[in-house]
Amino acid sequence: MKTKITLKDIARELEVSISTVSKALKNSEEISRDTKEKVQAFARLYNYKPNNIAISLKNKRTKNIGVVIPDIVHHFFTTVIRGIEKYANARGYNVIVCLSEESFDKEVINMEMLANGSIDGFIMSLSSETQQKGDYNHLKEVTEQGIPVVLFDRITNEIECDKVIIDDELGAYIATKKLVEQGRKKIALITTDDYLSVSKSRTMGYKKALMETGIEVDESRILKLPTMEMDEASIKDFLENQKLDAVLCVNEIFAVYSMRLAQKNGLRIPEDVSVIGFTDGVLSKYANPSLTVVAQHGEKMGEVSAQMLIDKVESEEDEETYQTKILEPTLVIRDSIVH
Amino acid sequence: MKTKITLKDIARELEVSISTVSKALKNSEEISRDTKEKVQAFARLYNYKPNNIAISLKNKRTKNIGVVIPDIVHHFFTTVIRGIEKYANARGYNVIVCLSEESFDKEVINMEMLANGSIDGFIMSLSSETQQKGDYNHLKEVTEQGIPVVLFDRITNEIECDKVIIDDELGAYIATKKLVEQGRKKIALITTDDYLSVSKSRTMGYKKALMETGIEVDESRILKLPTMEMDEASIKDFLENQKLDAVLCVNEIFAVYSMRLAQKNGLRIPEDVSVIGFTDGVLSKYANPSLTVVAQHGEKMGEVSAQMLIDKVESEEDEETYQTKILEPTLVIRDSIVH
DNA sequence: ATGCAAAACGAAAACGGTTTCGTGTTAATA
DNA sequence: TATTAACACGAAACCGTTTTCGTTTTGCAT
């Protein structure tokens, strides 16, 4: 087992001081040609690589960024991570992923674990429990310590920091508008309780589109599930007890399940019922029929978040100016609506 | 901005030495009741938390584990990460995720980045390019430095380390056997080139099951795609040019797409054609009809990998004994086969 | 030979902890 | 009263770097 070599080892072997070795490896002007070549050759030979931890301690910079998200087994979050990872890696950063699993406590614990020097900044999306409680002290503590935070998708106005979201209201709006344009009148919405920031916005977009086109909002056509978790019974109960000609869902699972239910009841999609979901995942693409969705561009969101975070981390002056970037959702038309 | 407090700060305020503070916080017997209470109270008041980096440098233990995988936007890898994350977190470890994106170079770079002190061990699944090249020097270097490695799913025999796989051959075997039992005779296999360790095993299981039941293996019924990437044209070309009564696919996307193709051509599933895939993801569950799959139990695999790694990291003696854990796949029966 | 500036290098502090070992004080014992 | 053990604490080394600030050496002009 050949153990890692350190500056001290090189210094001892070459009978120079540690400082000389350090400088030689950085090609410092202070060191003579001769010595530099000797040191560099030796370092290369023994494959010297500086110890990241020591450098982190010295610089107070870890080149790690902490990502705290509610769940990883969801296409949207997965694509965001990919975006973050790609961008961060290109700038020499590593990504530490922590899952809150929609739990407030885990979110707090994870942040505390990372906030003690392990990372230079956070990128996160709030757990549903956190949004429900409305308790953001763990975020406050972190920002007060000067650790930059970028919130994406599930955000809160209570914390001053950079934010990245898609225009959820607009997404629901264009989807609903599309349905109306195609002559649909009885449009249902399957969403979750309003405490989830995204659900609230989407519900608003849905209502706005209806009102604009002179269709009365019928609250009995809106199903608010307690969480994003699949609840087949509720959806079944909801859909089978009314006559509808279109369904808008806040994720793709709800949408695909709705399609299957309709089909089982002898309804044709999209002839009898149009369906639109959120999240352009693998499910939408390969569902039968393929699902029209509001694409959230998770990878882009991840990139933008990472860029904002790293820019802030590396900026010398600590400007107290924060921005919220709003990405535009787009409608991906597939076979679950007529076209 | 209230900056983090250090031992030195506490020592200065309380007019004691740094050593005393350190010991007091650890409830050392050496320190008097009085002093301990004073120090602990002060620390609590100012919310003192030791700096992880400093501790890492001292202990030469980071409590981070590096996970290097080819892709994150795949249900299987996602569930593995979740398993790793849950288990590792419970034991006080953080997870650094790096994506090789199926590229050999990225895999190497990522490992080098992490191997210089950032992590205590690796959990990884090889990129397809790495398996294709058969170049494992980056893994050798790491293990020679005494950094523990656990390989999962996409492994190699060229490296001595702990490994976790599912019995891919068995998975394909039971799936094929199931199809045969139901009277299917013309069973196609859609897989990838043999350099991918998992594909090779699955092909073997498929052939074994056929031979055991007296069905001749017809190579023209085997489609070997170059990668796991979706290639609709090839699959379409392959499926539409022969009469089949069943299809086995090495992932769920190939399988779902095969179902749609068959349906478009007027074939009923499962009456005319049975389909089985690998990976029990969201796609299988919500496809129409729902897809029978060989479940790979990714989360379990992640847990087991994390446990093996952390056990090795924390074991004092460096035993040079490695084990390979083989998890049993299970067949999840759904509507894409008769039952 | 002398003086001096430039060149080349080393000592030491710093980052924030842990830990070993030494030392001063107090109290108990002879 | 002298001796000693227990107690409470501090100094310093260490982990592996970087960096400032001397100090020594060299070369050159005088």
Q: Topology, please?
A:
Two copies of one chain form a homodimer.
Chain A (H helix, E strand, L loop, with lengths): L6 H8 L3 H8 L7 H13 L6 H8 L4 E6 L5 H16 L3 E6 L4 H12 L5 E4 L3 H6 L3 H8 L4 E4 L9 E5 L1 H14 L5 E6 L4 H16 L9 E4 L6 H9 L5 E4 L2 H13 L9 E5 L3 H5 L5 E4 L2 H17 L9 E4 L2 E3 L7
Parallel strand pairs in A: 1-2, 1-3, 3-4, 4-5, 5-11, 6-7, 6-8, 8-9, 9-10
Antiparallel strand pairs in A: 10-12
Chain A binds a DNA duplex (30 and 30 nucleotides) through helix 2 and helix 4.
Structural class of chain A: alpha/beta
* Rg from alpha-carbon coordinates of chain A: 26 Å
CATH top-level class of the largest domain in chain A: Alpha Beta
Would you count the extended β strands of chain A for me?
12
Largest sheet of chain A: 6 strands, parallel
Descriptive notes:
2 copies of one chain form a homodimer. Chain A contains 14 helices and 12 strands. The first copy, chain A, has 339 residues and is of the alpha/beta class. Chain A folds into 3 domains: 7-50, lambda repressor-like DNA-binding domains (434 Repressor (Amino-terminal Domain), Orthogonal Bundle); 62-166 and 298-326, Response regulator (Rossmann fold); 168-296, Response regulator (Rossmann fold, 3-Layer(aba) Sandwich). In chain A, helix 1 (7-14) crosses helix 2, helix 2 crosses helix 3 (33-45) and helix 11 crosses helix 12 (252-264). The longest helix of chain A is centred in the C-terminal third of the chain and has 17 residues, at 298-314. Chain A is elongated. The model of chain A has no long low-confidence stretch (mean pLDDT 96). At the A-B interface, helix 4, helix 5, strand 2, helix 6 and helix 12 of A face helix 4, helix 5, strand 2, helix 6 and helix 12 of B. Chain A binds a DNA duplex (30 and 30 nucleotides) through helix 2 and helix 4.
